[in-house]
Design a protein that fits this description.
mainly alpha; 5 helices
Length: about 130
């Protein structure tokens, strides 16, 4: 799944994104372990990815890798933004925007156990 997200635009270059996918997996939180695999293995939090600009003194391979990583981070940012917009539009499809007037009557519906809790000062879930 990680490689599919990273190589969505160009699936033929999956091998170039393998190290990023490995970093992504090792730094994502696992509920069953209650920590990241990196922390489970090394006992500390992983280093964060930072955006770096190459200098003209760097070897060409380093410059190519840094530019590829910068492009990959930009593509990931764009993909995340597109996914957020898609989720927002799907959530807004069933949403009604209502306007209320000051002094107007509104119906407030509480959860069934909350209505009795408001009257009886006990916890309905524990009964």
């Amino acid at each position: 799944m990680y490689l599919r997200c990273l190589t969505f635009e160009c699936p033929a270059k999956w091998s170039a994104a393998l190290s990023c996918a490995e970093y992504w997996y090792n730094t994502s939180y696992h509920n069953s372990a209650a920590m990241t695999p990196f922390k489970a293995l090394y006992g500390r939090d992983p280093p964060q990815l930072i955006r770096t600009r190459g200098s003209t003194q760097d070897p060409p391979d380093v410059q190519a890798h840094l530019s590829y990583r910068e492009d990959l981070l930009q593509q990931l940012h764009a993909n995340l933004h597109r996914a957020q917009q898609s989720m927002k539009s799907n959530a807004d499809k069933n949403r009604r925007f209502l306007e209320f007037q000051v002094g107007g009557l509104v119906l407030v519906k509480l959860q069934p156990y909350r209505q009795t809790v408001a009257v009886i000062f006990g916890d309905q879930k524990l009964l």
